[in-house]
Design goal:
This protein is an alpha+beta fold and about 110 residues long. The chain has 2 helices and 5 strands; from the N terminus they run βββαββα.
């Protein structure tokens, strides 16, 4: 088994000084994806900036074997305005300006 190191760069470089042993690159890939998913979940729940994160996995000789680059953002698309009167008229999906994300938009009436 070889030892691999999962180094994270999220505005601050966080080198993995311990690493973990794996039989093959598929196992390394799985750990990298799971680690990134956990970190992203925690960061997004805290409203942290994850606009330019990177993980590079190196082997015990220091050679990069996997690179994961990722960005994530949370945008609230739907605003529900509840008022004492006319609530049903105001409950509309307001997605103006979201077309660059590939969402269909409609004008609020």
């Amino acid at each position: 088994m070889a030892r691999y190191f999962f180094n994270v760069h999220d505005g601050i470089s966080i080198p993995d000084t311990v690493g973990s042993e794996h039989f093959d690159l598929q196992s390394v890939r799985r750990e990298a994806v799971e680690t990134v998913a956990e970190r992203l979940k925690g960061a997004l729940l805290k409203d942290a900036d994850v606009s330019a994160w990177l993980m590079n996995v190196t082997d015990d000789r220091g050679f990069t074997v996997i690179v994961l680059s990722f960005t994530a953002a949370v945008q609230i698309v739907d605003h529900v305005i509840l008022a004492a009167t006319g609530a049903s008229q105001n409950c509309q999906n307001r997605t103006e300006g979201m077309a660059p994300l590939g969402l269909k938009t409609r004008s609020a009436t």
